[in-house]
Amino acid sequence: MLARTQRTARLVLVAWSLALLPAAWADAVATGLPRADRIVVRKAERTLDLMRDDTVLRRFRVALGLEPQGHKTREGDFRTPEGRYALVERNTDSDFFLSIRISYPNDADRARARRNGHAPGSAIMIHGQPNSPTHSQEYYRRADWTNGCIAVSNADMVDIWLMTTRGTPIEILP
Questions:
Q1: Smallest Cα–Cα separation from 101: which of 113, 118, 119, 89?
Q2: What pLDDT digit, counting tens, does each position of 48-107 carry?
Q3: What is the CATH number of the domain that holds 126?
Q4: CA distance linking residue 152 with residue 62, whole number of Å
Q5: ∠ Cα 46 49 50 (to 5°)
Q6: Does residue 25 lie in a domain region?
Q7: Gap between the terminal Cα atoms of the chain
């Protein structure tokens, strides 16, 4: 019963947060919250930096795919891609607390996968925590657990959502 009550409370909090996002975004613009002009992810360091010029505006801890070393080469390899991409689509109705799709695969990724006889994979996102967690919060904080995405805490995801726009470049480094 306690677990059900906690789930219900979590769902109410998520719904309330999502309802406030448009107003929060407008407030962020009105109050001059800085906008990132690019994102840099350092996989080895498990960090995501929101950048403006050469200044780090915010730094976040990230979780990566279950096989974090190396560039994503095919669907199902559980790797997070490496390279230059862009933020292309925002989703408030995701399996995770907010998600922003990254433009992986690009033409080179598709060509490489085709040469190797594989599908390149898709749906690589920056996202928050699962709406229906299957592990403890400690697991999500300490482990690489995604299928190839870049995951952050829900609070961090709100900041990323508010400080970026569609088309923001993202560089994912080894």
A1: 89
A2: 999 999 999 999 999 999 998 999 999 999 999 999 999 999 999 999 999 999 999 999
A3: 2.40.440.10
A4: 5
A5: 150
A6: no
A7: 44
